[in-house]
Specification:
This protein has about 110 residues and is mainly alpha-helical. The protein contains 6 helices and no strands. About 65% of the residues lie in helices and about 0% in strands. The longest helix is centred in the middle third of the chain and has 19 residues. It is elongated.
Length: about 110
């Protein structure tokens, strides 16, 4: 419970609505929620980055991504790679390499 008597929700931890000591206390009391909160933090970071780049996503994108990440370690690893910056650098490198390839010549009839 918070100081004003409200029940703490995992979203409060993700949104930063709680001070760090209250977050640590809640997570220690709810170890089953630790993984969920960590995944939610990563998804929120991705959503913030997408908004900063003005990328439009469907309204339910965040919840669908959370559901997908809960059961897929590979997807979670890819998200971590992207958030680390290495994923973006790799994509930019691939984009530059593909831009250097000659364009196909269209055959005329």
């Amino acid at each position: 419970m918070t100081d004003d008597g409200e029940e703490i929700q995992p979203a409060d931890l993700v949104d930063g609505a709680l001070d760090p000591s209250a977050s640590h206390t809640w997570l220690a009391a709810h170890p089953e929620a630790v993984t969920e909160v960590e995944i939610a933090r990563r998804v929120r970071a991705l959503m913030a980055e997408l908004r900063a780049r003005e990328v439009e996503v469907p309204a339910d994108f965040e919840s669908r991504l959370m559901e997908r990440l809960r059961g897929d370690e590979a997807m979670l690893s890819l998200l971590d790679l992207w958030l680390s910056g290495f994923g973006r650098a790799l994509l930019e490198l691939l984009d530059a390499l593909f831009a250097m390839l000659p364009q196909p010549i269209m055959a005329t009839a």
